[in-house]
From TrEMBL:
GO terms of biological process kind: DNA integration
Organism name: Brevibacillus laterosporus
UniProt-listed Pfam families: rve_2
Name of the featured protein: IS3 family transposase
Residue ranges of domain Integrase catalytic in the record: 2-37
Length: 39
């Protein structure tokens, strides 16, 4: 069960920090969030 939790956590980190998304102007969710807070 711990291995599954680790894999899910790893994917969530990848999704939010490394995966570019077309709907967010080719930014990662973390980059987009920072962009919104800066404006």
């Amino acid at each position: 069960m711990q291995e599954l939790r680790d894999r899910v956590d790893s994917y969530i980190d990848y999704y939010n920090s490394e995966r570019y998304q077309w709907s967010l102007k080719k930014m990662t969710p973390d980059e987009f969030r920072s962009h919104l807070l800066a404006t």
